[in-house]
Amino acid sequence: MPRHGRRIRAGGANTERSPENAAMKATILHGGSDLRYETVPDPAPGPRDAVVRVHACSICGSDLHAFHGKHPRLTFPRILGHEFAGEIVALGSGLRGFHVGQRVCCDIDFACGECGPCRAGRGNICEKLRTMGFDRDGAYAEYALVPDFNLHPLPDNVSYDQASVVQVLGISYHAVAHRVLPKPGEKIAVIGAGPIGLGAALIAQLAGAEVTITDVLDYRLDKARELGIAGSINARDADMRARALELTGGAGFDKVVECVGGLQERTVTDAVSMVKRGGQITVVGTFPENRATIPIAYIKDREIDLNFSRGNFQAFKPCLELVGSGRIDPERYISHRFPLNRAEDALKLLEARNVEAHKIVLHPQEAG
Ligand SMILES: [Zn+2]
Ligand SMILES: [Zn+2]
């Protein structure tokens, strides 16, 4: 008998594989841009871990940073992938409350529980934070190891593809619900119509805000409109201050949410130019380098509040409710699906920006 009672379906029958000879396929980053599809040992669960058969893992912009070796906490070799859902196939001896065969969606952060921020209830800014897909192995793999505190049961009507987008939707949720704090009727601009910006715009709109979303790519703004986001601006050649004043009776937006990040500095500058006197800016985008600059005197003289949002925090449950109830349907912005051995093609497609890519999902149980 295998130590963990693990059963793997093979050839249509339940066949037991011992941990000694069990091997899975995974896509592993060995260094900047050195991504390999390989066979590695199956993960073996510790007492409080579940082994999750990964059915869907969506690709994140930060996977691209990682692929280029530019994520600050990335170590090698590393199985990437941190937005995923699947089915429990094995349980550690001490894991209670879950069962083999259960469909789950998985959080990825490991907070220490002991540092100052953790004790203050802010585990997402833990001093010793570790994250699957960066400094722990992730889910560009047939199986992933997930501890009980990161497992979230899936409602029956939420598909694995939809559930794979819940982690990133949770970034939008944490940003909007805990940091932006929208009020009904507030005029809010969301900069960036990628998955995080779309999620933030939808969640702010559900809270009653009047939302305008901006991007430099028309197809993304088309998608935002299709999803029901009321206002949009193509920022490519626009004078963003002039447009902001035009849309807000000359005052500027009450709040601006920056959801782009990346290597460029423009979006933070745009946010400052678009917000009203006494308004608030929340920066959600991820910056692999400290390149953004801010006009400190301008911000000070107008008492503009500037805050930041990191990661998905206490957001899986509310986001699964948003998806399960149909108020947000991530299926509507999943544009591509790839088998696991084509992860590199998928990353390059996301980067190329010459195709209309929104969310791209890998299916680790399918061979290419
Ligand atoms: Zn991500
Ligand atoms: Zn901590």
Describe this structure as you would to a colleague.
The protein has helices at residues 61-67, 116-119, 160-164, 166-180, 195-206, 218-226, 240-247, 266-274, 296-301, 316-324, 343-352; strands at residues 7-10, 13-16, 23-29, 35-41, 49-58, 78-79, 84-91, 103-106, 109-110, 130-131, 143-147, 151-153, 187-191, 210-215, 231-234, 253-258, 275-283, 305-308, 334-339, 359-363. It is an alpha/beta fold and 368 residues long. Strands 5, 7, 8, 11, 12, 19 and 20 form a seven-stranded mixed beta sheet that branches. Strands 15-14-13-16-17-18 form a six-stranded parallel beta sheet, with helices on both faces. It has a three-stranded antiparallel beta sheet with strand order 4-3-6, with no helix packed on it. It is globular and about 65 Å long. The protein binds zinc ion (2 copies).
Provide keyphrases for this structure.
single chain, 368 residues, alpha/beta, Quinone Oxidoreductase, Chain A, domain 1, seven-stranded mixed beta sheet, six-stranded parallel beta sheet, 28% strand, disordered N terminus, binds zinc ion
